[in-house]
Every structure is written in structure tokens, then in C-alpha cells.
């Protein structure tokens, strides 16, 4: 049976609303208590009317049910709009329209530019000759940059409905799992009745919720649908949040209920002690009926006990809940009326969606925040570049637009001499060629005008990394313009307005372990070059010549300023060496097993003996007053954690700029790179000894991250390592206390950065802290759909 593509985020259905909502309502101790009292008043002869308990209870239950029913109706509307969204499917050689919910695994889908993928898809072919397409995954991991995906090599030439419909293939893949960055599968394509097997990886997978960009159309086959998509598996079902005050009220109600039962028991006992004397058994004003005289004493005692319970039930006033609810309701309006929380640019005020959580805001101990779009504007600005010690500062360039007040190129240092001129131009060419930037030959992208200089419409750059766009735009202002990639050749416009063509032979893609990327190009004169750019720690050890000391000094200066730095180097290649490199890379790319490992070994062997050219500095703009806000939160005693899907280097630079990490902060790394060198067990115990040695095993409450007489620690952890830490312990392993050790390390750090986090992992982190020994109040803040699980998990969610 093939699973449908129906999406459902609602809590209730028409059939289960009443029982399910009643269960939620009577989870409140007070509601359950008053229900019992009401039923007792109906069953036995009591001194008070059932209306006194039933009417207030009916009022509270009805109002709450209407409110929750309306909220769920809105969720139903949102789900229906998604499920009924039209999708184009290839059937019998023609494109037909279907509702999204009717998609099935194996259906071939036709998607156009700016459309959002309705399910997880394997890319078969695209409008591009090279079989690539570009997508944005902002709703999944918060990154608004463009990512490149690749069609299956044997099907990328099929560009019509008839050709795609003629494909005969089977796909084998892993069971659905929530990791956004991993996918393992295989496609068997039948050509002349002989199957040809090709590996499938994350680069072939298009995720539900992502959007097609800068590609006219694609054909793709549905692989995971409905609640089995990675987006759905990362979605945490919505449950009703309860504040700490409400939970404590429930606890106090249990105490008062025990007091009430005790009073009723004592009074029942005293009544029968009093009535033990026959002269007091039946007072003249309250003679028993014959039925009462014949009733068993146990039944009489139980009835009397219930009567005393009803008589004393006002020790728990039903008006208490009504009063608290009214206070919360009115308090939410004070938040909405607060002028300090009014956004003048958008003309919007704060909106309180759940008034139950107002009082939690004053008790927050941990703040979990997303990075992209929350701490930062995701707006990269080229600041400067350094070539052999000479510093160049272009106009303020920000994502393709010249900032106000910018005039002409500004060079701080004097120009290099004629001998160094060639090195300088080679640096600029390296940055124009060593990237994955694509050129959008239009004036508008996403409805926003870009790349407009002096009123003229020009091309606009897009890339999987926003800082690559900033670097290419920076080079444009310094005289070297990247024009396009055409027929496998990269074209750039030099200072003399001459077009230079370089054949793009290989792209050695960036990864977080290598922390660098490279391209191999052939110039029009036949010379072969490897251009490489990356983090200083990954470039300097591989450099054999160049002005390393001058460049290193400038990189360290820019790092202190909180700027994102990259170093640029090159290596000339002989034809014989290039042939050897091609053989090495092709062997690694065709490997079905350990492909990533073999590629990493090949890259490592190629990217060596480099000649250093220079370095660049780019700034990721923070939201207004973000750094001051984090500093204020720290002073208030709150711990701030950044949870992001972004790369470690990018996130760390933002943490320094936002004052989450300071220059004197000792950074502790719990990352894949380190756990490959040591076992996770050893790394955790090393970090634990480091922090506990400094703080002497100081208790959490007495620790202050602002203390001046002890080292300030900051922890960086990535998603893969977190998965290993959170993995359930095996009986024959010693990993049972990994979570406890991890929590102990985190408690002794003033700030924590979690990078490469899947949406569900963000929620797991919040849940881990919530469930810790101290049960702190948590707050989560984010701006995208990838933050929903985290926001729902925290005590207070802000979006």
C-alpha cells in the first residue's frame, strides 16, 4: 500500500473533539474535583444545591472548549489549504493536475520555478544542461541561501513528459528518518533489460518545504510522502502548554484536597462518636426515615462522609480559576498595548497567542535562540581583503546592492609595486572563480529588485552561501566581475573590460571537516590552476610559500573585530599531475561504499603545496541591538544557547559578534572532527575535567558566567555529535551517563552554540534542559518553520 501525501497538524477531529477535549480539561485537578463534587451533589441528599458547583464548572469548561475548538478549526483550514494545493504529475506521457494529498510514492512530479516541493523527491532531470537545480530551505533549516542539487546522471537528459514517462527504474532507500542532511539510496535503471545501479545521496534529494529557485523546471519522483517526509518527522505535535503557576496550583489543590478529606473523615468520625449515645442518635428535629434506619452502617457512614465533603468543599474556591484566567487574559492585553514592543517598520504590535504563559516570562532561566534571521539579518557585507599585506576596502557592498553614501573604491594601503601586480590580479581572479555562485539574469528575485546600479538593471548573484555572494560582489567593485558559467567555462570581466574565459574542470566542494573548497580551472592559454579558499586553520598548514606572517596578522586582527575571515591560495598544476588528480577524483565519485571517506582522502591529497595569496573579511549583519540584548540577558542571570542549522564556522563568528562569546572565552568543541580523533567517551570526560577543574565542582546555582576570577567557557556542539550523546545506552556499553556528563559541561559554560541542528534536534535540546534536575523555565525564539518544534517544546515560545 502506497502512503498518501496527506498532511495533518490538527489536534482534534469532528469525532474525537468532545472526548479528547474533555480529557484535556479534566486533567486540571480543580476541574476534576468540582466534577466529582457536582456528581456527589446529584447522587446524595446534600446541604447545598448541585447548581452551586455545576454552573461555574459548566461555564469554565464551555468557554475553554470553544476557545480550543476555534484554534483547532484554524489548524484544519491551514491543513486543507496544503492538502488541496494543486500539483502537476506526469501520467501516460502527459502532465495532469492533482491535489497534493493524492500524491503517492513513485509519482513523477513536474515543478516550476518558485514552487514549493509537496513531498520528498528524487531529482530526475532539470531545465539546465548540467542537470543541476537550486533550492532554498529556509522553512527547514533557516538558511535562505541557494543550495545546489543534482539529477541522476542517467536521467538528466530526459527533458520532456514522454521521455520521463518512459523511464523504467526501481529505487531502494533507507527507512524514513528525520536527519535533513543524510540520505542513502540506490536507483536501478533498466536499459535494454539490463539494470544499471547508481548511488543516491542527499545531493539528489529535494525535501518537502524547500522551494525551487533559478531553475525553469524539474522532473522528480516522489520518494517519501505525507507524515513520512523529513519535514513531518521533524514536526513535533502540538500539545497544550501549562505554566509553572498552573502546575503549582494543581499541587496546592492536591494538598488542600487532602486537608478537605481529613476534615470530612474527622467530622464523620465525631458524628458517630456523638451519636453513640442513644439519647443523641435522633434529635427531635431530624428524625430518620424507615429507609435510613434499615441502611447498613457502612453505607450511612460513606454518605455522611460525602455530605461533609460537599459542606466543606468551599475550601477550594471555584472562583480561583476564574480569577486567574481573567488575570492572564487581561495581562495579555497589557503586553499587546506595550509601546516599547511596537515595531514601527512593520506597524505591528506584539501578539499573545497563549495567555496561559504570561507569568513564565519573569521566571526564564534558559533562552534558546535561532541564528539566521533571529540574531542576524542574514545579510553579508564585504569589508576588506588583504593581498600580500596590502589592504583593500571596496564600497560597502551588501548582497548585491551598493550601500547609501558609497562612492568609489578606497584602498587603504598604497598599491603594490609592478612585481606584485600579477599576484594581486591572481587573488582577484581566484575569488571570481573559486565559488558556487550562480548568475540571475533578471532585475527581480522573489519580487525584490537586486543588482541595480545607477538605475541600470544588471545581473544578480545567488549562492548556497551568502558570504560567497558578498565576496564576488566585493571583487566586482575592485575591478573584476564574474559574468556567468556558460558551456563549462567561467567568464570574468577584468579591469581593462576584457572578458577572460576559464574552463571549469573540477569543483572540490566545501565541507565542515575540511573547512575549505577548491576549483580546478584551465585558462585560455592552457595553464592549469587549483584555487582554494577556506578557514585560516585549514589553509595555513598547507601553504609552502607566500607572505604568511603579514596575512596571518591581518586575519587575527579581523577575527578580534568579529568578522568572518577566509584565506585564499593557489597551486599551479602540470598536465601529468592533473591527469593523476582526475583519476583519483573519478574513482572516489563512483564508489558505492565509503564514498564520502574516499572523496575526503582525494581532496586531502590534492589540496596541498599551496601558495598563499591573501585573505578576506566579511561581516554578517546582526539584528539591531542583538549584542546589547544578549549582554543584558547574561547580566540578568539567564543562559543563552544558540541553536542553528548553519555551519559551525559561520555560527561561531556570529556568536563572537553578538557578544555571546568573548575574546577571552575558552571554546570547548564537541564536534564530529574531534570525535573522529578521539572516542566520544574520552572527549566528554576531557571536557568535563577541564570545566570542573576550573570551577572546583561548583554547583550550578553558584556559578556565574560573568565572574571575573575564573575562565569563561563556551561550548560548541554539532548535530551528529548530539545524536551520539542522546543515543539510548546499550546494556554492554558505558554510555549510560553521556547525557548527565553533557549537562554538567553545559551548566559550567556561560554560553552554548549548537550548530548543524535538525529541527527535531533543537526540540530535543530544549527537552533535555527542561527535564534536568533543576527543571528550569525555558524560552525559545525563532523566525522560521524549522524552529516550530523548538518553540512548542519550550515553556515559552516566541516566533
Write a structural description.
This protein folds into 5 domains: 1-84, no CATH class; 89-235, Calcium-transporting ATPase, cytoplasmic transduction domain A (Distorted Sandwich), CATH 2.70.150; 322-363, no CATH class; 378-397 and 422-439 and 459-620, Calcium-transporting ATPase, cytoplasmic domain N; 622-695 and 710-797, HAD superfamily/HAD-like (Rossmann fold). The protein is built from 25 helices and 38 strands. Helix 1 crosses helix 3, helix 7 (244-274) crosses helix 10 and helix 16 runs antiparallel to helix 17 (595-606). The longest helix is centred in the first third of the chain and has 33 residues, at 51-83. It starts with 16 loop residues before the first helix and ends with a strand. Residues 86-164 form the P-type ATPase A domain. One of its GO terms (molecular function) is ATP binding. Its cofactor is Mg(2+).
Can I get a quick summary?
The chain is of the alpha+beta class and 799 residues long.
Rg result: 33 Å
Mean pLDDT: 78
Beta content:
25-35%
CATH architecture of the largest domain: 3-Layer(aba) Sandwich
| Uncertain regions spanning at least 5 consecutive residues | 396-415, 443-457, 697-710
Assign the CATH class of the largest domain.
Alpha Beta
Domain tally: 5
User: Can you tell me the CATH topology of the largest domain?
Assistant: Calcium-transporting ATPase, cytoplasmic domain N
Structural class: alpha+beta
Fourth-tier CATH superfamily name of the largest domain? Calcium-transporting ATPase, cytoplasmic domain N
Task: Specify the biggest β-sheet.
Answer: 13 strands, mixed
Q: What's the number of helices?
A: 25
Bulk shape: elongated
Amino acid at each position: 500500500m502506497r502512503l498518501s501525501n496527506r498532511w495533518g497538524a490538527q489536534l482534534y477531529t469532528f469525532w474525537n473533539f468532545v472526548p479528547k477535549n474533555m480529557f484535556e480539561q479534566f486533567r486540571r485537578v480543580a476541574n476534576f474535583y468540582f466534577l466529582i463534587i457536582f456528581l456527589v451533589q446529584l447522587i446524595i441528599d446534600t446541604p447545598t444545591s448541585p447548581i452551586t458547583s455545576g454552573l461555574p464548572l459548566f461555564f469554565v469548561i464551555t468557554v475553554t472548549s470553544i476557545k480550543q475548538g476555534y484554534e483547532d478549526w484554524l489548524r484544519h483550514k491551514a491543513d486543507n489549504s496544503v492538502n488541496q494545493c494543486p500539483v502537476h504529475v506526469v501520467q501516460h506521457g502527459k502532465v495532469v493536475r492533482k491535489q497534493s494529498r493524492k500524491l503517492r510514492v513513485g509519482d513523477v512530479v513536474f515543478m516550476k520555478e518558485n514552487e514549493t516541493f509537496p513531498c520528498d523527491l528524487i531529482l530526475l532531470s532539470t531545465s539546465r544542461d548540467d542537470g543541476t537545480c537550486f533550492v532554498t530551505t529556509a522553512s527547514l533549516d533557516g538558511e535562505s541561501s541557494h543550495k545546489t542539487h543534482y539529477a541522476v546522471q542517467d536521467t538528466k537528459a530526459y527533458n520532456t513528459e514522454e521521455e520521463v514517462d518512459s523511464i523504467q527504474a526501481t529505487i531502494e532507500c533507507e527507512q524514513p528518518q528525520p536527519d535533513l542532511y543524510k540520505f542513502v539510496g540506490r536507483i536501478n535503471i533498466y536499459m535494454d533489460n539490463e539494470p544499471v545501479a547508481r548511488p543516491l545521496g542527499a545531493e539528489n534529494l529535494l525535501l518537502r518545504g524547500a522551494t525551487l529557485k533559478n531553475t525553469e523546471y524539474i522532473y522528480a519522483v516522489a520518494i517519501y510522502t505525507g507524515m513520512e517526509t523529513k519535514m513531518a518527522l521533524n514536526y513535533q505535535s502540538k500539545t497544550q502548554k501549562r505554566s509553572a503557576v498552573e502546575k503549582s496550583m494543581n499541587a496546592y489543590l492536591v494538598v488542600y484536597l487532602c486537608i478537605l478529606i481529613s476534615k470530612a473523615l474527622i467530622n464523620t468520625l465525631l458524628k458517630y462518636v456523638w451519636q453513640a449515645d442513644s439519647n443523641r442518635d435522633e434529635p427531635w428535629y431530624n428524625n430518620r426515615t424507615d429507609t435510613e434506619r434499615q441502611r447498613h452502617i457502612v453505607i450511612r457512614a460513606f454518605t455522611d462522609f460525602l455530605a461533609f465533603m460537599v459542606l466543606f468543599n468551599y475550601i477550594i474556591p471555584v472562583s480561583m480559576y476564574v480569577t486567574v484566567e481573567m488575570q492572564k487574559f487581561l495581562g495579555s492585553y497589557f503586553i499587546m498595548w506595550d509601546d516599547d514592543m511596537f515595531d514601527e517598520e512593520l506597524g505591528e504590535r506584539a501578539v499573545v497567542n497563549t495567555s496561559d504563559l504570561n507569568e513564565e516570562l519573569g521566571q526564564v532561566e534558559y533562552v534558546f535562540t535561532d541564528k539566521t534571521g533571529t540574531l542576524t539579518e542574514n545579510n553579508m557585507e564585504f569589508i576588506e581583503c588583504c593581498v600580500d599585506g596590502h589592504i583593500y576596502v571596496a564600497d560597502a557592498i551588501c548582497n548585491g546592492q551598493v550601500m547609501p553614501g558609497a562612492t568609489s573604491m578606497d584602498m587603504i594601503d598604497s598599491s603594490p609595486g609592478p612585481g606584485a601586480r600579477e599576484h594581486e590580479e591572481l587573488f582577484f581572479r581566484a575569488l571570481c572563480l573559486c565559488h558556487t555562485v550562480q548568475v540571475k539574469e533578471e532585475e527581480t528575485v522573489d519580487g525584490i529588485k537586486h543588482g541595480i546600479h545607477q538605475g541600470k538593471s544588471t545581473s544578480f548573484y545567488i549562492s548556497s552561501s551568502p558570504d560567497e555572494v558578498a565576496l564576488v560582489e566585493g571583487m566586482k567593485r575592485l575591478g573584476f566581475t564574474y559574468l556567468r558559467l556558460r558551456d563549462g567555462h567561467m567568464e570574468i570581466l577584468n579591469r581593462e573590460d576584457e572578458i577572460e574565459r576559464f574552463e571549469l574542470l573540477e569543483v572540490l566542494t566545501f565541507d565542515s571537516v575540511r573547512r575549505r573548497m577548491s576549483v580546478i580551472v584551465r585558462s585560455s592559454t592552457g595553464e592549469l590552476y587549483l584555487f582554494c579558499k577556506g578557514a585560516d586553520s585549514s589553509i595555513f598548514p598547507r601553504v609552502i610559500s607566500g607572505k604568511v606572517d603579514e596575512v596571518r596578522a591581518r586575519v587575527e586582527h579581523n577575527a578580534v573585530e568579529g568578522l568572518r575571515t577566509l584565506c585564499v591560495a593557489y597551486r599551479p598544476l602540470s598536465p601529468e599531475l592533473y591527469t593523476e588528480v582526475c583519476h583519483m577524483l573519478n574513482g572516489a565519485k563512483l564508489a558505492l561504499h565509503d564514498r564520502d571517506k574516499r572523496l575526503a582522502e582525494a581532496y586531502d591529497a590534492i589540496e596541498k603545496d599551496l601558495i598563499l595569496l591573501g585573505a578576506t573579511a566579511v561581516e554578517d549583519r546582526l539584528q539591531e541591538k542583538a549584542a546589547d540584548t544578549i549582554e543584558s540577558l547574561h547580566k540578568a542571570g539567564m543562559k543563552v544557547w544558540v541553536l542553528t542549522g548553519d555551519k559551525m564556522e559561520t555560527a561561531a563568528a556570529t556568536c563572537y559578534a553578538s557578544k555571546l562569546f568573548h575574546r577571552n572565552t575558552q571554546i570547548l568543541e564537541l564536534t564530529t572532527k574531534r570525535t573522529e580523533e578521539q572516542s566520544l567517551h574520552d572527549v566528554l570526560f576531557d571536557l568535563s575535567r577541564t570545566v570542573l577543574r576550573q570551577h572546583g565542582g561548583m554547583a550550578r546555582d553558584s556559578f556565574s558566567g560573568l565572574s571575573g576570577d575564573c575562565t569563561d567557557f563556551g561550548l560548541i556542539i554539532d548535530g551528529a555529535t548530539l545524536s551520539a550523546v542522546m543515543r539510548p545506552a546499550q546494556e554492554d556499553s558505558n554510555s549510560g551517563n553521556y547525557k548527565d556528563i553533557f549537562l554538567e559541561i553545559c551548566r559550567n559554560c556561560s554560553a552554548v552554540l549548537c550548530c548543524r541542528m535538525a529541527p527535531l534536534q533543537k526540540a530535543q535540546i530544549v527537552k533535555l534542559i527542561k527535564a534536568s534536575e533543576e527543571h528550569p523555565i525555558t524560552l525559545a525564539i525563532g523566525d522560521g518553520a524549522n524552529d516550530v518544534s523548538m518553540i512548542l517544546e519550550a515553556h515559552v515560545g516566541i516566533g
